[in-house]
Each structure stands twice: as structure tokens, then as C-alpha cells.
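FIELD: query
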Amino acid sequence: MNHTLPNSPLGSAGNPLWDTALYPAIKAAKLGREVLLHYFGRLEKIEEKFQAGLVSEADKESEKIIFEHLRKNFPGDEFLGEESAGDLTNIQPTEKGSGRGRWIVDPLDGTTNYIHQFPIFCVSIGYEVDGIMQVAVIDMPMLGEVYTAVRGCGAFVNGKPLRVSQTTDFHNSLLATGFFADHEENLREQIEIFSHFVRQARGVRRAGAAAYDLAQVARGVFDGYWEKNIKPWDAAAGILLVEEAGGSVLTYRGEKYTPYKNSIIAANPALTKKFVELAKPHLLKSTH
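FIELD: result
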């Protein structure tokens, strides 16, 4: 499968990671894609992780081959992946000014979709340097789409520029969300917010893959997206796509979102503010 890659509007001078990190990330995502396509429809080992959904041999092998490729190119960097991550309780963004890089990888976002052969699933790779997301790649194997972004250089799908929707009226909005059902109090909060938003919007979709949802916000297909309790690897790449496509990514509290927060809203700047206002009366104290 061939994909047209974007030409940087700023060149390497705009962001030196355009050449040094983007292309290895695209290659790593391609390797992961090949693993997922190989196993699609013929899985043999499916396990259930405590409060973390399903995992298969495809997830594990995809992460292994992605990290092997990235480690060859970036041996001094940190690596955070869904299938190898430990306790995330105290994890913080990489320290500003340290020059330290961290690869944040979801080798298969949308595992339940994948296991049931629903074709919405992704490989998601984000690169954080000095506490800021700098490079993003989201590969959608069944759709033949590769989304890319480098900070300051725009966002693209198969080489074509992306732009978020300019819709600011909830009544004209197509929104996306997801649900985390393993904690009753959080689920009640989510359902209450959903109940409020579904009455305001033209429609709400639940695709089952946060990276896909964020890419569609960046593309202007979804006018907005919100969710609670997604993990760093679910959103690391997608948030940069949205920002580079002219969007805004905040927490439910209206603070700037990072992959280490527990709530996310992504849309154009005007719509994110309306999201925050509408959600505020329904939030738990623990939501940040």
C-alpha cells in the first residue's frame, strides 16, 4: 500500500524533527500495520486485562516490532506503550529543557473492534520532547489512510492538508465520544454528559477508537470529540493532529490537555469553549 507523504511547508528549518523523527515513525507504523493485517480475522489468543479491555497476539507483536524499529533509531529515548506500560499513577510529561524524547505508542487502538472484525482500528504513534507533543502518526490499515503531523508544520492525511470543522453551533454538530464502563461513578458522569450533549447535537457517534475520533476531528468530519479516562497512548498522536489542523484540545475543566490528564475535549476553539460550559454542571470533583 503506497501513501503520498506531505512536503513540509517549512522544511527542516521549521522543525528538525520533520526528517529525523517523522519518517522513522511512519515506517514503524507501517510495520505495525502489516502485523495487524496479518492477524485480522485469524486470531488465536485473546485475553482480558483488568480494567483495560482486551488484548491479543496482534497487539503484542505490533508493539514489539514498532519499538524495535524506533529503538534502533532513538536508543536514548523513553518508550511508553499500551502493552508494556506499568503503573501510570505518577507518570509526568518529559521535563522541559531536558531534550529527552518519549515515544507513546498504541500498537492497536480499537482492539475490541479488531477482534470483532469491525474495520475501525489504528496504529497510533506520538513523539513527546521536552513535555510537548512534536510528531504524530496514525495509520488506519483497513481504510488505507496515514495521518501525520509535525508541530508547526501542519497536519495531513495521505499528504493532503487537514483542517478542523468551523461549526460552532451544537445543533449543527456531529460529535464523537467513548465510554469507560469499569468504574460506576465515572460511567454515571459520562452518561449524564452524554444525555445532555445528545439533546444538543445533530448526532453522536461512538466508533470505539480514540485515535480515529481525533483524526476525524482534525479532518473536519467530526465537529467535536469528548471522552473520560483514556490513556496517554490513546490520544498522544491525535491531539497534535487536531492542534496542527487548527483545533483546540482541552480537559473538561477547560485546561490545556496533555496525555496525562483524565478528560479530553477536542474541536475548534469556539466549540471547545461551549463543550466546557455545557459539561461543567455534571463533573465529578476528581475530573481533571
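FIELD: remark
The first helix runs from residue 17 to 39.
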